[in-house]
Amino acid sequence: MSRTSIALKNLRAFVILLVVGFHSVLAYLSSQPSTPPPFDEPSYHWLAIPIVDQARWLGFDIFCAAQYIFLMPFMFLLSGLFVWPSLKRRGSQVFLLERLLRLGAPFVLVVLLLMPVAHYPVYRVTAVDPSWSAFWSHWIALPVWASGPLWFLWQLLVLDTAAAALYVFAPGAGKVLSEWSAAAGAAPGRYFIALVVVSTAAYLPLAAFFQPWDLKQFGPFAFQPGRLLHYVVYFFAGVGIGAYGLERGFFASDGWLARQWARWLIGALAAFIAWLAVAGLTTSEGGSKIPGLALLSLVIFALSSAAMCFCFVAVFLRFATKDNLVADSLSANAYGIYLIHYLFVIWLQYTLLGIPMPAFAKAATVFTAALVMSWMVSITLSHTSFGARLLHGRAAA
Fold first, then answer.
1. 314 touches 261 (CB < 8 A)
2. Best CA proximity match to 217, nearest among 390, 44, 94, 21
């Protein structure tokens, strides 16, 4: 396995840690209301933040702000890397069938079967009748069917379908995307500027009407309206990088990006701090009156997204190019953990309500227990025929 492939495998392991960590700390944000709203209140605050605990820590707000900026664009970028090689190797029909099985089937099964169980504690927090039968009557009366973090899967399936359509009806698109990405190897700085410009142009029109954390839902299909086009740009950026080849250019383990990891780290930190400062100023009474400040906040948001993505790629290409047994297992089971962890996170947060513990201790407990339990379940499922097909697209070992 090449150094680049090992770095990407380790990066996949790290990303799933961020995902579980992000959901584990949501109950302890200092910016949350003092008490949870009723389950049936039309705002449905719990769709985004299921459990609200009285233990709070401001540090978690900063951590989640960083994840809001870059984590989902980064996941779409990484998801696009292997799309074009897979289309060339398998053809569009086999590719789409495989995507339906790997993305569509888990989405349907987990949303229908697991999400009601996962959200039962959310109902119990404010319920007069906490029984399952009472919960179920409230659940099916909702205008939506909560899907938790699984919204990523249906959007990724739509984008994969769009890529397959390009492959069939505009096969030259792969060459164009590849040529754009080829320039990234020689001039990552110019590629970065181009990505910032394009992603900002895609982000601004919708961001003018929606906040980055706004969540809309129709039936089981949730989405972030302000960032739809933003995610499209990052997905197809990943497609282009993968079409050109991961071992050369932008993702080369000995390339310019990896060698300049320190600059990208400093730049990402500076962009994030700048966004925090400007965003905080826009919410103040005086700052809200400054012309152009809100627009500047949106531009820096898009800039910070790109900078943080480049930073993590650079750091892992530079320092994470060796095999590690724990990271190997975590990476291999990342998809299973993603599908399952939300159930454990919510129930653990609910169990810790009212227990006198600092917010950090509660979050650490939730994170550790949810990660270990979902990891073990994923490993167990992977040894069954059904689970291996669902999670890995192959027969059980």
1. yes
2. 44
Say if CB 36 and CB 119 are below 8 A apart. Answer: no
- For residue range 314-346, list pLDDT tens digits in order: 999 999 999 999 999 999 999 999 999 999 999
> Which residues sit opposite 57 in a β-bridge?
29
Radius of gyration of the chain (CA): 21
Residue 207 β-bridge partners:
none
From residue 191, alpha-carbon distances to 165, 241, 249, 310, 340 in Å are 26, 11, 11, 11, 36
Secondary structure (H, E, C), 244-299 = HCCCCHHHCCCCHHHHCHHHHHHHHHHHHHHHHHHHHHHCCCCHHHCCCHHHHHHH
User: Cβ distance 177 to 239 under 8 Å?
Assistant: yes
Backbone phi and psi for residue 57, each to the nearest 5 degrees, phi listed first: -150, 125
**DSSP label at residue 43:** T
149-153 CB contacts, 8 Å cutoff, 24+ apart: 149/19, 149/23, 149/338, 149/342, 150/106, 150/107, 150/110, 150/111, 150/115, 150/339, 151/217, 151/221, 151/222, 151/223, 152/72, 152/75, 153/103, 153/104, 153/106, 153/107
Which amino acid, one-letter code, is at 69? I
Asked if residue 204 lies in contact with residue 298, where contact means CB atoms within 8 angstroms, the answer is: yes
CA distances in angstroms from 238 to 76, 83, 197, listed in the order given:
8, 8, 16
Burial class (CB in 10 A: 0-12, 13-18, 19+), 137: exposed
Strand partners, 221: 218
- pLDDT, residue 357, reads 95
The answer to whether residue 185 scores a pLDDT higher than 70 is no
- Three-class SS of residue 158? helix
pTM: 0.94
Q: Which residue has the tokens 């947060």?
A: 349
Q: Could you tell me what percent of the chain has a pLDDT over 90?
A: 70
